[in-house]
């Protein structure tokens, strides 16, 4: 016999006197022995939002541990104590368990109060929610305890607080379980029905208490908001064919004990009628049965919810998501027809939002709605072209008018209504209208008479007769339209009934008037419409989706991105600060601006005297006159420089100047120039504009400065090769040692490639370039050229290599932020062609300089050139002016290409410019096959280039027995050929991409393949030719087509990773640098072995391996690039 239950009324009078340590002691006592059962009511008093969270949490943990093992043995809430058979007294054990059940119910109620209380902290609410859901899982003998879950949801919905945290926590942690979704739908259906009944009763009861009625209405709306949040955040059930393994929170699925539905408050008397018909509670349902039951409860919950008086924002949100989130999962979507037809009849934005779902019901579920097109016709108002959901509306409108069974009068009415709207809507709306009318005319040939009415009277007579014959009974006698005067539009724009609008008696004169629209895209589109109607067989329907989301911003962006085919006549000396200048309104004074100026001056205590104003105007006028006089003086001086009539040299100067300025305009964001008639004036004005542009550092693009940078860099490399070779030969250094010294540079160059890309990404390309130039220029100036001082030369070449390793990643970082995608090929080609120009100049000038001034003079000249160019870079370049230049901003590049995420934002002030940094995806970079394709080709290119650059002078002197001084300009032809072919490749690539002749991927592969395959043939054939002309020709073809191939692989990293262009360039250029190390050193060893075998290097066999190896590498790289490269962006 169990012990008698303790006195349940033994509660403390002052519970606040217990400390946290006391509560722990009380909890341990309760769990350790039944004799301390009186601690249970005491701990229950602390489950309240009025107590500190630590006290509540400690009591909660103790009570949870106490009740969890007892729940299977506790009676249901409605069960009364039973009596013993022998005595009339009830059984003590039953009384004890009943008392425990009441305390458990009190515990659950307290937990729910804490969960919905605004006083409780979020962390405590999370623990309370987990405890409640644990009781839901285990509190009914292993079955889902829907009574506790129902009580919890009721308190959430009826609470006057928002409870966003609790709802978000519930949806994120527990709505993934299918049984919780199931019982949530059941409870939502009950809540919605109760709220509907309450709303009806409140509407019938007329009360004079306006305040109470307002509070009741707010409470109802808050409950609806919560229900909508819950029902819209329940994820849809997966298809049982795709996923049959559903995750359950309770162990027995949807089954419920028979007595569970009867609680103390009778919440669950009719919990689920479908479940009562089941013969066995523990049967496991199949996936198909789960899906069927879930779809049924889903449908009931949503239909009940949609009967509620939804607030307007909830109404709109439901309509916007109904066709995607609700209709596909309903058991019978036709049940939504009443709700959708009522919404469609409201008009305005609500009708537009209801159109998607209603269209689905009509096309896929057989809904008949006779007045659909009449309501749709009424929706065509100017305001619809500014609505938020206009894009979806225009796409559905186009789909609704696609049916071939559409009557001619209806199609004509829509065409005329839309064409009339084209006169008053924004340009983006006019583009959509033209597309819709284009499709209507193609789909319905019977309304082609609207394009041009030959005889208005005859046409309107026939149309009027047809209308009268078909609709005389319903609409009465029609007006005799033929009696109207010719030249008057018979279309009634105010008529809401398409049948009575008389559209077939009119014409689309509004579309013809759009030929003279102020917006160029609109007028161009009208002309294309005429062409499409003329050659109907060769054209197709217009995709309305391409125009449905248009706005002023998209039209402006398209115009900015359009390639300028002709030179506009406007030229600005400075960036315009407004749409119209003050000179356009000479003599006008605007009162608002004048009042603002007076107010500002009076606030600052400045006198607004007429004398000051006149003084300012006089100063400004004098400044303008002075600038005009200087401009005229400069023009006169330049005109004197070109004699009249113009000589052929003047014409060639003009042509070269024209080409230069157009390249500059595309690469430097220059304002377009004015065309002139004669070569003399053309050359004069072009020179003036280049002069004026270079005078403003804000507009100076670093492309030509970067070209000079690379010119100096490669000049240094060629210069060291020539100077050191001559000095080493004089000192008797062998070929292997010369190869080691020449390759030392590339060790430092390889180590600094990736750090260079990171530094340019973090600190800006301008600073990194400047520091690297100063470092290698100073090193060249300070280090003497002495072949016997090997250690000093090695250290110097390592420093120069490290300094120059930062240059290429920095350059590509700047170009990726400056240059738009359709101009990248030519800008990169122009910039990098400085390398080849420097090599050509080095081969032409430096041998003579060494001959007359000695090898050390080469280093002195290179140091002076590097320092001079650093000064120019510091003076004119900027780091890059992302948002300062209007064309850069409008084109959508520069600032947008900087790698920045919301969680990775890190800004540093750098001279007023925000420098952005972000985490670099190193792993994705190193495992990406397109990047490896770039790396392989970069390796091959630099292997061939560095071998020829370092050993071609030796081949000319020792292999062909030629003197570099006697070869004259022919020895510079290979590098000058690279300069030409590099720029040709850039222009060809941009032309193919811009004109959409080939995609970006195919363009890169084509140029890379042609360049490398031709270069491989020339390299293999190079040792065969034993004359200077043949050797120069083969080396020129090889290097020229290698430069052509750079328009393929060398620009590709900007295509696939524009945000990380410097980083990817650093990675690929590291491979190119390793090629320099391997190629130059390996070539030296090959030649050393050939010297041993053939006693000298004059035989072709000595050089065959030197040139065949890069030739075979070119063939291998071509196949790698064809297989793995791409022109699409793979790094966002």
TrEMBL record:
PANTHER family: NUCLEOLAR COMPLEX PROTEIN 4, NUCLEOLAR COMPLEX PROTEIN 4 HOMOLOG. It comes from Populus alba x Populus x berolinensis. It holds the Pfam family MFS_1. InterPro entries: CCAAT-binding_factor (IPR005612), MFS (IPR011701), MFS_dom (IPR020846), MFS_trans_sf (IPR036259), Noc4 (IPR027193), SLC17A9-like (IPR044777). GO terms for biological process: ribosome biogenesis. It is a multi-pass membrane protein. The chain crosses the membrane at residues 768-785, 791-815, 827-846, 925-952, 972-994, 1006-1024, 1030-1049, 1061-1082, 1102-1124. Residues 257-276, 452-476, 591-623 are annotated as: Disordered. This is Major facilitator superfamily (MFS) profile domain-containing protein. The keyword Membrane applies. Residues 591-603, 611-623 have a biased composition (Basic and acidic residues). GO terms for cellular component: endomembrane system; Noc4p-Nop14p complex; small-subunit processome. It comes from the Eukaryota.
């Amino acid at each position: 016999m169990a012990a008698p239950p303790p006195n349940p009324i033994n509660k403390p009078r002052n519970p606040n006197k217990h400390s946290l340590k006391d509560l722990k002691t009380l909890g341990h006592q309760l769990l350790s022995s039944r004799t301390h059962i009186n601690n249970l009511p005491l701990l229950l008093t602390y489950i309240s939002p009025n107590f500190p969270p630590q006290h509540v949490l400690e009591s909660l943990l103790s009570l949870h541990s106490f009740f969890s093992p007892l729940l299977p043995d506790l009676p249901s809430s409605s069960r009364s104590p039973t009596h013993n058979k022998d005595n009339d007294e009830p059984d003590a054990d039953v009384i004890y368990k009943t008392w425990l059940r009441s305390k458990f119910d009190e515990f659950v109620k307290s937990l729910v109060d804490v969960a919905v209380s605004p006083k409780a902290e979020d962390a405590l609410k999370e623990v309370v929610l987990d405890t409640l859901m644990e009781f839901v899982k285990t509190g009914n003998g292993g079955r889902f305890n829907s009574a506790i879950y129902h009580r919890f949801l009721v308190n959430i919905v009826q609470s006057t607080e928002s409870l966003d945290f609790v709802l978000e926590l519930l949806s994120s942690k527990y709505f993934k379980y299918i049984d919780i979704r199931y019982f949530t739908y059941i409870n939502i259906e009950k809540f919605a029905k109760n709220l509907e009944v309450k709303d009806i009763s409140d509407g019938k009861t007329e009360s004079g208490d306006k305040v109470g009625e307002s509070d009741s209405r707010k409470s109802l709306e808050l409950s609806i908001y919560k229900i909508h949040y819950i029902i819209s955040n329940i994820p849809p059930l997966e298809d049982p064919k795709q996923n049959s393994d559903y995750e359950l929170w309770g162990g027995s699925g949807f089954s419920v004990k028979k007595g569970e539905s009867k609680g103390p408050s009778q919440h669950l008397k009719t919990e689920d009628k479908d479940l009562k018909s089941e013969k066995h509670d523990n049967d496991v349902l199949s996936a198909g049965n789960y899906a069927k039951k879930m779809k049924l409860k889903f449908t009931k919950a949503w239909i009940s919810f949609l009967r509620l008086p939804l607030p307007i924002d909830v109404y709109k949100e439901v309509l916007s998501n109904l066709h995607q989130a609700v209709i596909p999962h309903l058991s019978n979507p036709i049940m939504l027809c009443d709700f959708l037809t009522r919404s469609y009849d409201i008009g305005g934005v609500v009708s537009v939002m209801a159109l998607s779902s209603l269209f689905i019901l009509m096309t896929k579920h057989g809904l008949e709605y006779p007045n659909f097109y009449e309501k749709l016709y009424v929706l065509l108002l100017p305001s619809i072209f500014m609505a938020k959901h206009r894009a979806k509306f225009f796409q559905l409108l186009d789909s609704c008018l696609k049916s071939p069974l559409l009557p001619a009068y209806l199609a004509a009415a829509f065409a005329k209504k839309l064409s009339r709207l084209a006169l008053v809507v924004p340009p983006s709306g006019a583009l959509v209208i033209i597309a819709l009318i284009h499709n209507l005319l193609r789909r319905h040939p019977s309304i082609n008479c609207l394009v041009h009415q030959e005889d208005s009277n005859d046409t309107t007579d026939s149309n009027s007769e047809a209308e009268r014959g078909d609709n005389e009974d319903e609409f009465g006698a029609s007006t005799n339209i033929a009696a109207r005067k010719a030249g008057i539009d018979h279309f009634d724009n105010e008529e809401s009934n398409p049948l009575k609008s008389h559209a077939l008696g009119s014409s689309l004169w509004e579309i013809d008037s759009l030929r003279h629209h102020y917006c160029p895209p609109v007028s161009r589109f009208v002309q294309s419409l005429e062409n499409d109607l003329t050659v109907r067989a060769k054209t197709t329907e217009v995709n309305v989706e391409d125009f449905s989301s248009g706005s002023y911003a998209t039209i402006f962006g398209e115009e900015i991105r359009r390639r300028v085919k002709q030179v506009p006549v406007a030229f600005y000396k400075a960036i315009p600060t407004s749409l119209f200048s003050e000179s356009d309104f000479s003599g006008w004074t605007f009162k608002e601006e004048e009042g603002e100026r007076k107010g500002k001056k009076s606030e600052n205590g400045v006198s607004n005297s007429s004398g000051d104003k006149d003084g300012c105007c006089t100063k400004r006028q004098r400044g303008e006159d002075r600038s005009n006089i200087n401009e005229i003086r400069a023009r006169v001086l330049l005109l004197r420089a070109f004699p009249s009539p113009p000589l052929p040299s003047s014409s060639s100067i003009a042509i070269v100047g024209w080409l230069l300025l157009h390249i500059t305009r595309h690469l430097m964001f220059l304002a377009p120039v004015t065309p002139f008639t004669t070569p003399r004036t053309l050359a004069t004005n072009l020179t003036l504009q280049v002069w004026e542009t270079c005078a403003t550092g804000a507009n100076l693009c670093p492309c030509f400065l970067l070209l000079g940078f690379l010119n100096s860099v490669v000049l240094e490399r060629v210069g060291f090769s020539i100077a050191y070779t001559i000095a080493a030969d004089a000192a008797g250094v062998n070929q292997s040692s010369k190869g080691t010294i020449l390759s030392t540079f590339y060790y430092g160059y390889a180590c600094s490639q990736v750090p260079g890309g990171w530094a340019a990404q973090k600190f800006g390309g301008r600073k990194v370039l400047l520091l690297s130039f100063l470092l290698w220029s100073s090193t060249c100036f300070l280090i003497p050229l002495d072949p016997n001082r090997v250690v000093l030369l090695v250290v110097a070449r390592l420093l120069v290599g490290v300094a120059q390793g930062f240059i290429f990643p920095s350059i590509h970082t700047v170009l990726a932020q400056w240059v738009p995608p359709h101009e990248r090929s030519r800008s990169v080609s122009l910039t990098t062609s400085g390398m080849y120009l420097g090599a050509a100049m080095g081969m032409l000038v430096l041998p003579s300089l060494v001959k007359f001034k000695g090898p050390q003079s080469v280093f002195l000249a290179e140091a002076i050139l590097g320092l001079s160019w650093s000064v120019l870079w510091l003076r004119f370049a900027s780091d890059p002016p992302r948002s300062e230049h209007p064309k850069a901003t409008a084109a959508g590049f520069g600032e947008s290409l900087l790698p920045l995420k919301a969680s990775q934002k890190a800004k540093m002030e750098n001279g007023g410019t925000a420098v952005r940094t972000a985490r670099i995806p190193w792993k994705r970079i190193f495992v990406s096959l397109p990047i490896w394709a770039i790396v392989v080709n970069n390796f091959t290119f630099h292997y061939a280039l560095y071998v020829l650059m370092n050993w071609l002078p030796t081949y000319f002197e020792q292999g062909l027995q030629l003197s570099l001084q006697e070869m004259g300009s022919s020895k510079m032809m290979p590098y000058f050929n690279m300069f030409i072919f590099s720029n040709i490749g850039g222009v060809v690539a941009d032309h193919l991409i811009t004109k959409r002749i080939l995609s970006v991927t195919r363009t890169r592969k084509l140029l890379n393949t042609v360049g490398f395959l031709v270069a491989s043939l020339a390299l293999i054939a190079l040792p065969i030719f034993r004359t200077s002309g043949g050797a120069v020709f083969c080396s020129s073809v090889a290097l020229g087509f290698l430069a052509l191939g750079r328009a393929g692989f060398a620009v590709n990293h900007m295509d696939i990773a524009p945000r990380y262009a410097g980083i990817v360039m650093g990675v690929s250029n590291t491979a190119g640098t390793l090629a320099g190390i391997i190629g130059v050193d390996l070539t030296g060893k090959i030649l050393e072995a050939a010297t041993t075998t053939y006693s000298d290097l004059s035989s072709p066999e000595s050089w065959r391996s030197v040139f065949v190896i890069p030739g075979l590498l070119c063939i291998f790289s071509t196949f790698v690039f064809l297989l793995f490269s791409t022109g699409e962006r793979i790094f966002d």
